[in-house]
Specification:
The chain is an alpha+beta fold. It is built from four helices and three strands; from the N terminus they run E-E-E-H-H-H-H. Strand 2 and strand 3 form a beta hairpin.
Length: about 110
């Protein structure tokens, strides 16, 4: 079983995901950058869309969303992963695409 834990240097939401397809919780009430907050919101929205994703799109999201959420990664790497997530989610729901654009801007892309 793969377990992914993301903490943004003690700031922002702490997100725990098991098997990358079953979020087990977000620790709220912490402060963080606008990008951290937008990424946490994106992760919640993705969980709501998960049932509408094709298996291939779900794999793409599962492989790239942890990179987007990892504040230790280079901005370019995070933006590339965000583009992959955006492509995978495009067919599932337009509402999340605006959020992705906001995250992209907050990450400097």
């Amino acid at each position: 079983m793969n377990t992914f834990n993301f903490s943004h240097g003690g700031a922002g939401d702490q997100v725990n995901m098991v098997n990358t397809s079953n979020s087990i919780g977000i620790v709220k009430g912490q402060t963080g950058t606008p990008a951290d907050q937008a990424i946490a919101l994106l992760m919640r929205e993705v969980e709501e869309l998960r049932g509408r994703l094709t298996p291939e799109a779900a794999r793409t999201v599962d492989g790239n969303l942890p990179v987007v959420a990892d504040g230790t990664r280079a901005p370019g790497e995070r933006l590339t992963a965000l583009a992959a997530v955006s492509g995978a989610l495009a067919a599932a729901g337009q509402s999340v695409l605006g959020l992705i654009d906001g995250v992209r801007q907050l990450l400097g892309g």
